[in-house]
Amino acid sequence: MRISGIQLAYDDHETLEDRVVRAADLVRTQHSSDLIVLPELWPSSGFGYRNWGAAAQTLDGPIVTAMRAAARDTGTHLHMGSLIEGTPEALERLASVDHDVKRLPELPDGERGLWNTSVLIDPAGDIVAVYRKIHRFGFGNGEPKLLEAGSDIVTAPIEVDGRTVTVGLATCYDLRFPEQFRALLDAGTEVFVVPAAWPAPRVDHWSLLARARAAEDFCAMVAVNTAGFHAKTPMGGHSVILDASANVLAEAGADESIITADIDIEAIHSRRTSFPALDDRRL
């Protein structure tokens, strides 16, 4: 299974429209891949909270529509990273405050109508999975204050050369919660897919946690981070593709780049058989 991770870099000056076009063009360069992955919240910026309202869209809005077209043109599965998803009612509220999400009245969970949402698209351009981020980063501010929490463990099948490969979806801060990845494993996951907007000061933890989740769950890992500098925050880069033994198959540096690697799906199951730690679980 050939996978490409697009470590997109951006700053605070690029318009949403230009960034969507640029990301779609980068996707279209990866015709040889079975799965292409973009980072978390690249349309709105991960830490630019004040941009979230202007970039929020429904899943039939221009951002997802453009990514569906790119997947269809490329003829491959595309994990388009994540965007701020909003219900029509939430978007109407945002319009009333000039799309400044921080000026919205504080609403309790369940009434905000905004999520950090990942979308998986098939080669026909159809949406095949939607994952709303379960663990919101911000310690009471940012995501916890502005967005809803997702609740569903999400896996999806991808057809590769006549074989079905199960991918498990998570996002950024989720990496710090191993119980979510065990639940994905128990749901049949073979390959974890984790888009992120992980900042440079903690990039060592990004690399450590990605390897830990792959090693402890005997799953391959595709972890695609953002590069660049936005909202006064340097981003960490260092996207990585790991096998089920947590060996590095491809890794990016700090700048915008595309990494590609072939994952041996049979080797995932061979690893689980030859080192049967998963069978020894007791808790």
TrEMBL record:
Q: Tell me the keywords, alphabetical order.
A: Hydrolase
What GO molecular-function term can you cite, just one?
Answer: hydrolase activity
Source organism superkingdom: Bacteria
InterPro entries membership: C-N_Hydrolase, C-N_Hydrolase_sf, UPF0012_CS
Chain ranges of the CN hydrolase domain? 1-265
Q: One Pfam family name from the record?
A: CN_hydrolase
- What does the similarity note say? Belongs to the carbon-nitrogen hydrolase superfamily. NIT1/NIT2 family.
Protein name (Swiss-Prot/TrEMBL): Carbon-nitrogen hydrolase
What high-level taxonomic lineage is stated for the organism? Bacteria, Bacillati, Actinomycetota, Actinomycetes, Micrococcales
